[in-house]
Amino acid sequence: MKNFFTIGSLIMVTALTSFTLSAGIDDVIAAMKTGNASQVAKFFDATVEISMPDKSNSYSKSQAELVLKDFFTTNMVKSFDIIHKGENSGSQYCIGTLVTKGGNYRTTIYMKQKGDQQVLQELRFENR
Question: d(Cα 11, Cα 17) in Å, to the nearest integer?
Fold first, then answer.
C-alpha cells in the first residue's frame, strides 16, 4: 500500500512538472501570435539575449521588453506558426515563423528552468 502512494505521488509530481514546463512556452507562443511584448516579458530572465537582423545584444529585463515592443510596433504581427517545439533537460525551445506586415522572420524561443519556473533567455529573429 505504501508503494502505491509513493508511485502515485511520483506520477502526480511528474504530471504537474510537465504541465508547468509546457505552460511557460505555450504562454510565450500565445503572446508572440498577438505581438504582445508585455506578455512575453513576464517570462524574461534577468538578462535576455535578443537577436534581430539589424542588431543583437544582451538586455536587462526592462530593456528587452522595450526592444521587443519596438520590434512589434515596427513589424505589426499577423501570426506565429510553430515549425518545431521541444524540450531537453528542463529547457524548452520553439522554432517558428513570425509573419508580420514587414516580412517573415524565422523565430527561435529558448527557455530554461530556473527554480520552479521557466524563464525566457533568448529570442532570435532572422529574415526569411
Answer: 10
Strand partners of residue 106 = 97, 126
Assign domain 2-127 to a CATH class: alpha beta
Three-state SS string across the chain, please?
A: CHHHHHHHHHHHHHHHHHHHHHHHHHHHHHHHHHCCHHHHHCCEEEEEEEECCCCEEEEEHHHHHHHHHHHHHHCCEEEEEEEEEEEECCEEEEEEEEEECCEEEEEEEEEEEECCEEEEEEEEEEEC
Give domain limits for the chain: 2-127
> Is the model's pTM score more than 0.85?
no
pLDDT digits over 50-67, tens only?
Answer: 999 999 999 999 999 999
